[in-house]
Amino acid sequence: MRRAAAWVAVRSQFEDVGVCESDFSTRSSDGNKVTTAHVSDREVGRLLSDLPSAHGARAVQDGRAWKRRLFDPAKRARRAMRVVRHIRFVYFAHVDDDSLYGDYHHELVTAEVLMDRLLAARAAGMRAVHPQLHGEVEERVFSRPQRGSFMQVTPEYIRWYGRDGLRRGEPMVREELAIELMGEYGYSYSDALDIATNNSGALARVDQAWLTARAKTPIYCRPLHATEFHRLACAIEGAYHVPQNDANVANANSDIARRAASVLGTIMDEFVEPPFQTPVLADAFAEFHRAHLLRVAHARLAGLQPMPVTGVLGWFSAKRARIYAEVQARLAAR
Q1: How far apart are CA 25 and CA 16, in angstroms?
Q2: Model's pTM, two decimal places?
Q3: CB-hemisphere CA count at 13 Å for 296?
Q4: By C-alpha distance, which of 23, 22, 21 is closest to 303?
Q5: Half-sphere exposure of 203 (CA within 13 A, CB side)
Q6: Could you read off the pLDDT of 246-265 as tens digits, one per residue?
Q7: Helix (H) or strand (E) holding 255
Q8: Euclidean distance between CA atoms 323 and 320, whole angstroms
Q9: CA distances (Å), origin 107, targets 32, 97, 220, 223, 257
C-alpha cells in the first residue's frame, strides 16, 4: 500500500514524457511481475530492427512472405533469441581508399566495431559504458610502479605494497586504502577517504571491479571506457556528415547515424551530457536519454525492477537506488 501511494503521488510527473511500451515489458499477460535487467530492450530493438539501406530492398518485399515469416513460430523464436543487433552503414562502391571516401569509410568501420562491442556487452548484462573512467585510468590500474620509484611511504605506495614491502595481488581500492590509512595514521574515515582520493590513484570499489571485469572480457563484447565512448561519438558524427556523392547513401547513413546516437542515449542509466557537436545528433541523444532515464525511474518507482528489500539494509539500498534514478531523470529533464 505504501509503494502504491508513493507511485500515485509521483505518477503525474511522468504522464507527459512519452513513456514507451518498454516500461511495461516486465509484466506478463496475467499481471505477474517478470524481472528484466534492462527497461529499454524494446526501444533499442525498435531503433535497430529496420535500419535503412541504399538499395530499397525492404520496401518491395513480398507481403505474403513477410506474413509467413512473422507468424512462423520457429522464426519468431529465433528472432527472440537474436539479442545482439548490429548497426551497419552503407559504403560507397568503387572508390580509392586513399581518397576522402577512404577516410569516411574508416569512420564507418570504427563506429560499427565500437557499437558492436557496446551492444554485445549490454546483451551480456554488463555495464556497457563507463563515461567517467578514461583510458589512462585503466592503464594506471594495471601498471604497477617499481618499488624503488617511491622515496617514502605514500598513499600510492600503500595502495600497491604492504607494510612488509611485499606487493599486493591487486591494488587497493579507495575504501580499503582509507581503512588502511585510518589504522596507520589514526585518521577519521572521511579524512582518510579524502587523502586516498586526492593523493593516490585508487579507484572506488565498483569502478575497479568494472575495469577488472572489462579486462577479462573477450574483445568482441568488451564494454567501452570514456575514451572509447567519445571515439565512438566522433565516429558516429563522422558517419552523419556523408561526402556528397550518392543521395541514397547520404540519406541512409544520416538516418543510421541518428539512430546510433539515439541508441547511445537509451543504454546509459546515469545522466550524461550529449557527446555530439552536431545539433541533430545531440538532440536525438538527449531526447532518448531523457526518456530512458524517466523509464528507469518509472520502473523503480512502480517496483518493476528487482530490488533487494530483505532487512533494513536492503530497504535502504532499494530506496537509495530509486532516489538515484529520480535524480538522474531530473538532471536529464533540465
Answers
A1: 19
A2: 0.70
A3: 26
A4: 23
A5: 20
A6: 788 889 999 999 999 999 98
A7: helix 247-266
A8: 5
A9: 46, 12, 18, 19, 11
